[in-house]
Amino acid sequence: MFVGQEHIQELFDKFIENKEIPHSFFYGPSGVGKTTYAKEIAKKLNTSFYEFDAANFKLDDLRKISLSDSIFKPIIFIDEVHRLNSTNMDALLKPLEKNTFFFICASTLNPYSAINSALRSRLLFFEFNPLSDEDLEKILDNLDNNLSKEIKEFLIKSSSFDARAMINLLENAKKLGELSLENLKKIRAHFISNQNDALLTSAFIKSLRASDTNAALLYLARMINENYDVLYIARRLVIFASEDVSNANPNALLLANACLNSVKQIGYPEARIILSQCVVFLSKCKKSNASYLAINKALDYVKNNKLSPIPKYLDNYSPFKKDYIYPHDNPHKKQIMANDCPIFYKDNAIGYEKNFEIWQKEGLYKC
Predict the structure, then answer these.
(1) Membrane-crossing residues (predicted)?
(2) What is the pTM of this model?
């Protein structure tokens, strides 16, 4: 019995009923059922399931499978798909278009950072959420319905919503002969942490946003102490630099990117110093969310409004391109760049952004 992810199960029940499932990308924290549910789908479809690890994946293996299983479409599952090299990602494109098998891949990373755009365009994305305490308790009851309340509680809390880690701890504790809380604590002296722990991440980002440097450092220290993926932390800092600091201090994004690249090469324990420098800088920066709000407004407008045609003089292949006014030669002549375009960006004039208004008044081009 598969437990949890009801929002995904509901969708796939309908796909399975029609005997067709989409090529899919399952993403979310470790131990929440991505691989298990892919196997569950294969059982419900009554078809073959072939599992590969991206690090060892070979396209020749895929060719053999798709040719040998011609009665029912098999499911090809690639775990940790972000580890595929670019050549293998590109090699998957044509087989996916031929649609001779069902393709499911999984990753702990967001699909927009895990795979290239060509592969993304051929997949649908399904996010797996952390399992609840109730979900994990159901899993334990299915494995052993004689567990005491205190043992269940320790197994669940110490595993940080990772069902695989919880089951692994239970199985190894039973090998000691006596399943006791004392033995469980001997095997797992420290609670593990899931790198996608939403609460700790939220507290970390909100402390940065509030310019509370000490709180941000406290949460950073907790993340490091609980062995969060160093790249996960650094990527969050890059996002924060653009979303919350933005053009109030453009150097924030440069420093955050430098931090990401540096910790990728160095790793723990020295990466803590680089992360700390970046956190202190970002927390102290003036903040502006003007760019963040602007793109959200623009996307909302594009999704919900009939769009006007692009002016013909902006088309390099149109005879009307001769009507385009080149700003460097004609700095005082204004020309419409988009028909019926609303105002999306409102300048907060914070920090470096104050220069924008000055430049606008002085003219962006020298006469």
Answers:
(1) none
(2) 0.56
